[in-house]
């Protein structure tokens, strides 16, 4: 298994994720597309010293973008929505 | 807002200001409110960024901005509440700005010293009243005569004498080569004046017009012109003309050049009057200097460093301007502004001291400068410089020199006030 910091790439901070965090203690991350839910759960627990109840994942397909005549594709990535035990929280500092 | 004033010295004050929590948080909140509308952060639409996110991104920025704003808003209030008149830029030491805590900062400023001036009325001064002597008038007349002398070519050729003006061509040769910089045509030399090359002038004596001669001059090692110092240079000189200075005769015609004078006697009278006025002015100036010296001696006090520095700066820039009109830069004189400022320190200190004392006296005695007096002064300046009054006024207004002019007049008035009340013993 990969190291936790290789699995969890970055937290996703958006209007939506902020709302989810406040209402359901759900934290959103971009993760390694190869990682599975169990790996993500353990990685989050190790990195942030919290108890994870549930992990949901989805693959985000990169958009196809055009620059002039050339077509390009943004990379695909995996999003993970992690629900924490009640009372636990993660303070994001990175990316700030 | 609470303030505390601490005296560091008679001219330095430390002000501690405390701003209450409510005001601090109000400022911070309003600042974030403003920021929220404008901040663009990825993942959020403008105006929808939650406060915590903003705080994470802009904490330091907000802190410094709000600190600055709070100080700006309360500084002048603190100054007036403490009845201080700062003369220097404040040195501000801001404390840490924290949410939900009162904000502290300290300001160190220099203020005008609290001075007590007394015993300035009835100063005893010593002056020398001098009568204008006849010789002085004669001397002045002779100077004018000299000034109005004309050069005339001598009618009969004769050898050159001291005091002659010689028109000549010359060429300087060094080791068999002509020197570019040592060549001139139709150059006029006043023999014996020492204004050209003294040795060369000496050697010209006895030569006749149309005569050519080679003169060798050895320049000393410390000669002013570096290229020629310590060298022997031969000058090939060709005398073209010899001129004499002809003084105008001192008759009743002579004063015509200076104005409407009927006779030489009348002109002499006028000269005597002028001299008397000059002497009176000199005496007055001397007495005023004495007053200033006396006051300075009697009232030692600390002078705000910032004022001294500003004064020194003003003196230096004045000097630079004067030099610039002659086309000389500071660098050519091996001077730097810093060094000059250092040299002017003592003088500046004296000036500042004088100014503070006079200001205080003016204050105590209720001496003031009215607008009419300023107007009067402007008129005088416009007459002296032959500029229209409007132009002078505009110049002073544009350069913000009017306050300066006002202090100048105030100082003069105060000095005159003191002079009138002084006891003068004439020797």
Task: Describe what you observe in this structure.
The complex is a heterodimer of chains A (96) and B (427). Chain A has 96 residues and is an alpha+beta fold. Chain A is built from three helices and six strands, in the order H-E-H-E-H-E-E-E-E. In chain A, a hairpin with a 2-residue loop joins strand 4 and strand 5. Chain B has helices spanning 21-38, 51-81, 134-147, 198-204, 264-298, 305-325, 337-343, 345-365, 371-385, 389-398, 402-420, and strands spanning 2-7, 12-19, 91-94, 103-110, 124-127, 150-153, 165-174, 177-190, 212-218, 232-246, 423-426. Chain B is elongated, with a radius of gyration of 35 Å. In chain B, the strands form three sheets. In chain B, strands 6, 7, 8, 9 and 10 form a five-stranded antiparallel beta sheet that branches. Chain B has 427 residues and is α+β, with helices and mostly antiparallel strands. Chain B has three domains: 2-110, Alpha-Beta Plaits; 150-246, Chitinase A, domain 3, CATH 3.10.50; 263-426, Trigger factor, domain 2, CATH 1.10.3120. Helices cover 46% and strands 20% of the residues of chain B. In chain B, helix 1 (21-38) packs across helix 2. In chain B, a hairpin with a 2-residue loop joins strand 7 and strand 8 (177-190). Chain A binds chain B through residues 12-15, 17-18, 92-93, 96, and chain B through 42-45, 48, 50, 53, 56-57.
* Helix vs. strand class of chain B: alpha+beta
How many structural domains can be distinguished in the coordinates of chain B? 3
CA-based shape of chain B: elongated
Tally of helical segments of chain B: 11
Spans where pLDDT lies below 50 across 5 or more residues of chain B: none
Mean pLDDT of chain B: 80
- Tell me the number of helical segments of chain A per DSSP (H or I, 4 or more residues long): 3
Strand order of the largest sheet of chain A: 1-2-6-3
The major sheet of chain B is characterized as: 5 strands, antiparallel
Strand content of chain B: 15-25%
Q: Could you say what the CATH architecture of the largest domain in chain B is?
A: Orthogonal Bundle
Largest interface: A-B, 9 and 9 residues
Please tally the β strands of chain A and state the result.
Answer: 6
* Average of per-residue pLDDT values of chain A: 88
Along the chain, the helix and strand elements of chain A come as HEHEHEEEE
Q: Helix- and strand-based class of chain A?
A: alpha+beta
